[in-house]
Amino acid sequence: MLAIILIGGKGSRLRPFTCDRPKPLLPLVNRPFLEYQFDLLKAHGIRDVVLCTSYMPAPFKRLLGDGRRLGLRIRYAHERRPLGTGGAVKNCERLIDGPFLVFNGDILSSLDLTGFLRSHRRDRADASIALTRVKDPTLYGLVETDPGGRVRNFVEKPSWDEIRTNTINAGAYIFEPGVLGLIPEGTAHSLERGLFPRLLELRRRLFGYVASGYWMDIGTVEKYLQVHLDIMSGACRPAAGKAAPARKPLGQSGLACGRGVRLGREITWPLDGGQAVLGEGVAVGDFAKFTGHVCVGPRCVIGRGAQLEDCVVLKGTRIGPGATLRRCLVGEGCRIGANASIAAGGAVAGGSVVGPYSVL
């Protein structure tokens, strides 16, 4: 089966971290986010992938190539101008010869693709939408289905008195090739606002599949940080893939290290289920303290007595002696001065310099 992944967006809500890198290639616990979607596909026997590129296409080809290194066949369908979700799928038409899967390129989930496909076939659907349940339906567009799972209505960001379900579009679809004829060629078009309402209007067989398990859109800084914490805490258990080499040096529990890590004296590691993940070549100074869930990217330096709690530090950053980081995100190549403090909710753009004793 062919999987199409939509990765053409600019990732505006994740700026400044997407100014120099497309969102699907941002690191997630020191691996490119897109590799987690690849792992899910491979876990269900899907190895033929088309990436729909628009914004910054070169880094994808440079990092992923033809996919052979990852055990995949990767091809690319580039949009010279953004075509929207529907137009991007239409742009792949020449590569499609049977039922196909479509993924949004910014969703991490534990979707049972095998069960999803089985449901699609059982329902003899023209198109199927993966759905997930949410606690606050007013924040999303809802998808209403009948008792047999057939989609009967879409409700955009309803008020509480309009809510009859809490299932939303989970950003994964299965299509029969025949639906491509309903998407105009060479123009911007939306699956969500164009194709799906049109399928309802034509009374075509459009079904929903309610997925259980983990689901997260990484599209904001807050959610990008949260998905790191969820993976390290075990709240999210992604499909198994080939992670970077890691070991637990010195017999410490709650610590996973890449190659070439250098550790100082009297370091405090997370307790009570917490975890510290240190990328390759990280150096940690004496008396540093890690609390909760902390991910440190490759070649970072953590200064003497620094304190890190529930935070993410991307590669090449230097954290000064005595600095304190709590539930924040620090970009690549930053310099955080001695005794500086970054509070919960903080986000420091790559290449930033935070002076000694600064408070953010």
Query: What's the CATH architecture name of the largest domain?
Result: Alpha-Beta Complex
Distance between the termini: 49 Å
- Beta-sheet strand percentage? 25-35%
Summing up helix and strand content along with how strands pair, one would put the structural category as alpha/beta
Whole-number average pLDDT? 90
Q: What percentage of residues falls in helices of 4 or more residues?
A: 10-25%
- Widest beta sheet: strand line-up: 5-4-1-6-11-8-12
Low-confidence stretches: 242-253
Number of helices: 6
CATH class of the largest domain: Alpha Beta
Global geometry? elongated
Compute the number of structural domains: 2
| Largest beta-sheet details | 7 strands, mixed
Q: Radius of gyration, rounded? A: 22 Å
What's the CATH topology label of the largest domain? Spore Coat Polysaccharide Biosynthesis Protein SpsA, Chain A
How would you characterize the overall build of this protein?
There is one protein chain. This protein has 360 residues and is of the alpha/beta class. The protein folds into 2 domains: 2-233, Alpha-Beta Complex (Spore Coat Polysaccharide Biosynthesis Protein SpsA, Chain A); 249-354, UDP N-Acetylglucosamine Acyltransferase, domain 1. It contains 6 helices and 29 strands. It has helices spanning 33-43, 58-64, 84-90, 113-122, 191-201, 221-233; strands at 2-6, 27-28, 31-32, 48-53, 73-78, 100-104, 107-109, 127-133, 141-145, 151-156, 167-175, 206-210, 215-217, 255-257, 262-263, 275-278, 283-284, 289-291, 293-296, 301-302, 307-309, 312-313, 318-319, 324-326, 329-330, 335-336, 341-342, 347-348, 353-354. The chain has a 7-stranded mixed beta sheet, with helices on both faces. The protein has a 6-stranded parallel beta sheet with strand order 14-16-19-22-25-28, covered by helices on one side. Helix 2 (58-64) links the parallel strand 4 (48-53) and strand 5 (73-78).
